[in-house]
Amino acid sequence: MTEPAYEAISFEQSGALARITLNRPDAANGMNDTMTRELADAARRCDTAGTKVVLLTGSGRFFCAGGDLKSFATAPDRGAYIKGVADDLHRAISTFARMDAVLVTAVNGTAAGAGFSIAVTGDLVLAAESASFTMAYTKVGLSPDGSSSYYLPRLVGMRRAQELMLTNRTLSAVQAQEWGLVTEVVADAELAPRAAELAERLAGGSAGSNGAVKSLLLSSLKNSLEEQLEAEGRSIATRANSADGREGVDAFLAKRRAEFA
């Protein structure tokens, strides 16, 4: 089956590594219905056994300035249009969260609104020194989407989430790292090579093991201690019986590098 060509994003698969680039630089990579529909489809393509890492970034000076307000304003029914855009974005985020592949977001510039939201959904978040983060929703009379009302209280606490959402405070990349939103801050010129280096290293790991980490962390946000302990026990037993689990243990005992599927 021929895979679709995209207009608002670019998609490239190289072995176990998939690269997604938000590609509307003339519109600050603003999210319209085309971009979010394509992003959901690209996420679907990444949710396979052959993909171990997804690297998501933006083209041009912006990572993503959020929703494309021009497209919102020209829609016959703004509410219905924005709901469709949000639904597709949420479908992409849900797939990214539940796939085995590790999502690395490389924030190359301003991340505002939905751009902020999707940036911090990365399992690992790299940011250029010049990057900035702001919610910006209430500034235009809207409310948050893109999972930010779920992730932000868990990442930074309720008080800071309230501050970000209600005051639209802008955080620098360094501040975002101090708050726990960003994994690593690098010089602007080093962002792309650092992200590529990290992605390539992760691509040599075990997709099933990484997927289990993601699943356990996601379930920990709602489980009781005993429920989480049971999930951990079942998960590690499953991994121990898997091909990657057997290879990892055998390689360690033989003092050689593991060759995961």
Description of the molecule:
It is a single chain. The protein is of the alpha/beta class and 261 residues long. 49% of the residues lie in helices and 16% in strands. It has helices at 33-46, 69-74, 78-98, 114-119, 148-156, 158-167, 173-179, 191-203, 207-220, 225-241, 243-253; strands at residues 9-14, 17-22, 53-58, 62-64, 102-107, 110-112, 124-128, 132-134, 171-172, 184-186. The strands form two sheets. The protein has a six-stranded mixed sheet, with helices on both faces. The chain has a four-stranded mixed sheet with strand order 4-6-8-9. A hairpin with a 2-residue loop joins β1 and β2 (17-22). α1 (33-46) packs parallel to α3 (78-98), α5 (148-156) packs across α6 (158-167) and α9 runs antiparallel to α10 (225-241). The two termini are 25 Å apart. The relative contact order is 0.11. The mean pLDDT is 96.
Task: Itemize the secondary structure elements and their pairings.
Layout (H helix, E strand, L loop, with lengths): L8 E6 L2 E6 L10 H14 L6 E6 L3 E3 L4 H6 L3 H21 L3 E6 L2 E3 L1 H6 L4 E5 L3 E3 L13 H9 L1 H10 L3 E2 H7 L4 E3 L4 H13 L3 H14 L4 H17 L1 H11 L8
Parallel strand pairs: 2-3, 3-5, 4-6, 5-7, 6-8, 7-10
Antiparallel strand pairs: 1-2, 8-9
Helix pairs in contact: 1-3, 5-6, 9-10
Gist of the model:
This protein has 261 residues and is α/β, with parallel strands linked by helices. Helix content is 49%, strand content 16%.
